[in-house]
Amino acid sequence: MAAAIAVESLIRPEVRALSAYHVADAVGYVKLDAMENPYTWPEAMTAEWLERLRSLPLNRYPDPSPAGLKTLLRDSNGVPPGMDLLLGNGSDEIIQMLLMAVAGPGVKVLAPEPTFVMYRQIASTLGLEFVGVPLAADFSMDMPAMAAAIAEHKPALVFLAYPNNPTGNLFERADVEAIVALTPGLVVVDEAYAPFAEASFMEDLPRHGNLLVMRTLSKLGLAGLRLGFLAGPPSWLHELDKVRMPYNINVLTQATVEFALERLPVFEEQTALLRQERAALFQALQSMPGITPFPSRANFILFRCEGVAAGDVFDGIKRGGVLIKNSSSAGGALSGCLRVTVGKPEENRRFISALEQAISGR
Ligand code: PMP
User: Is the separation of the CB atoms in 338 and 328 below 8 Å?
Assistant: First the structure.
């Protein structure tokens, strides 16, 4: 029998220091924790989709560069002519590809914080130094701090979530432009929440040599399929494509995304409903004593609890049958904060009533 190998002798310390990305068990709860679209498809559309699946050749590898799918993505996302696309198994995989392509001794990656945790998490697994620059108290960009950090650390990559997760706000356009101009490396504007933001840097791509725009279909309503993409100048995407696994977008995902994008109005209707619900949910939160919601351009709302511990409010909401996200456990700027995803009207009502009960201690 081979001798036991100590974990510490093989697994790098920076990996051992991490915690795996935690996903709460949502079984039995109204699920408002993960920024998913709560709506499913009309029955006739599902039947048509099943029909399309019948002819899929599952014995063959997927198309490594699906031209038809890319054309649909370009058209539905307003990708400017001359820009290329790189597809990922969710935008998480694109973040990983970007970081793998630049990783090396002394290379640094920078983002304002708090932000999407996977930028830091994946950078750490690859041994890259991650520089987090605190946002201002109102979650706007602290431009003097950002400019100083960029000058000091000369990052190879800067990630800007636009709108930001978990704060929900859009950074000032002029601040993003200034960061693109100041950064010696690439700036990735992560537009995961594009269907809810009504603002974008997509059409600005041709004006900048070091700007990339990343999107995902997850928030539109296809989170289960795992498809993200990066749009940018062909010279950069050509290099990034070398770290992509050849068959990273599986046959079922390719066929189903094509099918869905051919029926885009179904999803546009759903996201329009969610934007309306976001406004109603914001108002309901604003009218509650001890609760301060932050304005959001995404499909979730961050809110601060005052006079009562956020952890207790979170637990109380959960006892009421609704799962949201306890952002306060990250501490710092997010202390006292919880994040709720915008759901269907009846789900949002369940949440508001669970929150009322939680803060009144019943
Ligand atoms: N970027 C941001 C800002 C996000 O909030 C998320 C998901 N919560 C992602 C990227 C990842 O999206 P996906 O991997 O589902 O495409």
Answer: yes
- Other CB atoms within 10 A of residue 112 CB: 26
In angstroms, the CA 338 to CA 6 distance is: 39
- Segment 264-289, tens digit of pLDDT: 999 999 999 999 999 999 999 999 99
Domain boundaries, the chain: 7-42+265-360, 58-262
Superfamily of domain 7-42+265-360: Aspartate Aminotransferase, domain 1 (3.90.1150.10)
State CA 317 to chain mean position distance.
24
Its ipTM equals 0.99
CA distances from 138 to 43, 142, 169 (A): 44, 10, 9
- Candidates 201, 148, 195; CA nearest to 171 is 201
CATH code for the structural domain at 58-262:
3.40.640.10
Tokens of 138: 């109102």
What is the DSSP code (8-state) at residue 325? B
Q: Residue 311 Cα, ligand 1 centroid: separation in angstroms?
A: 24
User: In the sheet where 337-341 sits, what is the strand order?
Assistant: 291-293, 300-305, 337-341
Nearest residue CA, atom 6 of ligand 1? Answer: 192
Q: Where are the alpha helices (DSSP H) in 234-344?
A: 234-240, 251-261, 264-286, 310-319
Q: Which protein residues touch ligand 1 with a CB less than 6 Å away?
A: 35, 90-92, 116, 161, 165, 190, 192, 216, 218, 223, 228
Q: Indicate the pTM of the whole model.
A: 0.96
**What is residue 113's three-state secondary structure?**
strand
Contact between 133 and 146 under an 8 Å Cβ cutoff? The reply is yes
- Rounded to whole angstroms, how far apart are CA atoms 229 and 6? 39
